[in-house]
Amino acid sequence: MHSFGYRANALLTFAVTILAFICAIASFSDNFSNQTPSAQIQILNINWFQKQPHGNDEVSLTLNITADLQSLFTWNTKQVFAFVAAEYETSKNSLNQVSLWDAIIPKKEHAKFWIQISNKYRFIDQGHNLRGKNFNLTLHWHVMPKTGKMFADKIVMSGYRLPNAYR
Amino acid sequence: MGWIGETVDSIKSIKIRQVLTQAVTLGMIVTSALIIWKALMCVTGTESPVVVVLSGSMEPGFKRGDILFLHMTEEPIRAGEIVVFNVDGRDIPIVHRAIKVHERGNTGEVDVLTKGDNNDVDDIGLYADGQIWLHRQHIMGRAVGKAYHQVYTYRCIGFARYNIQRLRQQTEKKPVVGCGSGS
After folding, report:
1. ipTM reported for the complex, 2 dp
2. Distance, CA of B6 to chain centre
3. H or E element: which one contains B30?
4. Would an 8 Å CB–CB cutoff place A17 in contact with chain B?
5. Which fold does the domain B50-149 belong to in CATH?
6. pLDDT at residue number A167
7. What is the pLDDT of residues B143-181, one digit of tens each?
């Protein structure tokens, strides 16, 4: 009962239990942070809007994205993954979510930003439903912790509309 | 070490009844571990409630050796969720993020396209030939939490499995673009 093997075993078990407990507490502390993120997205230009050879609509946009996600960072945050998705409804699909741009924000200092880019991922529909389509641009963020539970939330900005004709 | 000698002596002087008792006790311990694992599978709704990240395709968020906790519900997949999925014909499941989602109005079926955060291209190259969307049957679960990655033994096992898989795929001349994870 007092040999090296027993003692090492007891010590290791205790250490692992304490470690798991600390990780759980670290994750739980994330619930108490006060989060007030803000964002604005502007469509500066519709670069082009065409129907592909096999029938799907595709549009290219230039976006102006302003956001302040600094309040999402806690001491247990590894990074924040933010992305902008166009969300709309068609006759066949009750929901379409197409990610247009994403970024990994590793530090709090980088979380307040202004960026002007054209869409990083192609905005392609399943079909040809995009003419005159009203859609929302939603900024989603996923807070990835150093350890524990991941949180995700979003800001929905509505009122965007695609042109009625291809160009 | 004294306890090895003590154990050997105790084995030499053992009687049948004691042997059987110890065998039954061991069996009970093993089966209760199995019961806990199965219960965890029921609670989380996935075949694999805990997986290990094998590749760097989700860095810097998930590093190789990180442990992920999965959960699966009936709710449809939405953009941004980190999903673990199996591709037909590949053994190792992959942990990537959904970037495009199309949900059918009438059936509720969802088409999903995924991409690793650290990859430049989406996962179409990883899907089966001719497949361009993932569906519910391919997806094992959503990642809901992670444990710190200094779990060294898992890291070694993970590396070994990943390298074996890579070797196998290279000989089959299939592209390997930021593969995934295993349990």
Report:
1. 0.85
2. 40
3. helix B16-44
4. no
5. Umud Fragment, subunit A (2.10.109)
6. 87
7. 988 886 665 454 555 556 666 666 666 666 544 443 344
Residue range(s) defining the domain that contains residue A127: 33-161
Residue A138 forms part of a structural domain: yes
For residue A1, tell me if it sits in a domain: yes
Helix count (H) and strand count (E) of chain B? 3, 7
Residue A79 within any structural domain of the chain = yes
| Residue-wise pLDDT tens digits, A81-115 | 999 999 999 999 999 999 999 999 999 999 999 99
Pairing of strands B50-53, A38-51: unpaired
Give the integer Cα–Cα distance in Å for B112 and B102.
7
User: Is A86 found in the same domain as A56?
Assistant: yes
> What is the sign, positive or negative, of the torsion defined by CA atoms of A77, A78, A84, A89?
negative
Which residues in chain B have Cβ-Cβ distances shorter than 8 Å to A27? 145
Could you read off the pLDDT of B31-90 as tens digits, one per residue?
A: 999 999 999 899 988 888 888 888 888 888 888 888 888 999 888 999 999 999 988 888
Instruction: Compute, in degrees rounded to 10, the torsion defined by CA atoms A97, A102, A104, A110.
Output: -120
> Residue A137 — very low, low, confident or very high, per pLDDT cuts 50/70/90?
very high
Verify whether the Cβ–Cβ distance B60 to A104 is below 8 Å: yes
Judgement on whether residues A58 and A28 belong to the same structural domain of the protein: no
- Reported confidence tier of residue A138, pLDDT bands at 50, 70, 90: very high
Interface touch B3/A142, C-beta < 8 Å: no
Q: Which residues contact B125 (CB under 8 A, 6 or more apart)?
A: B175, B177
Residue B123 designated active-site: yes
Identity of the residue in A27, A79, A83 whose CB atom sits nearest the CB atom of B60: A79
For residues A152 and A70, state if they share a domain.
yes
A166 lies in some domain = no
**CA angle (B56, B62, B66) in 5-degree steps:** 100
- Same domain flag for A77 and A155: yes
Same domain, yes or no: A7 and A60: no
Q: Are residues A61 and A12 in the same domain?
A: no
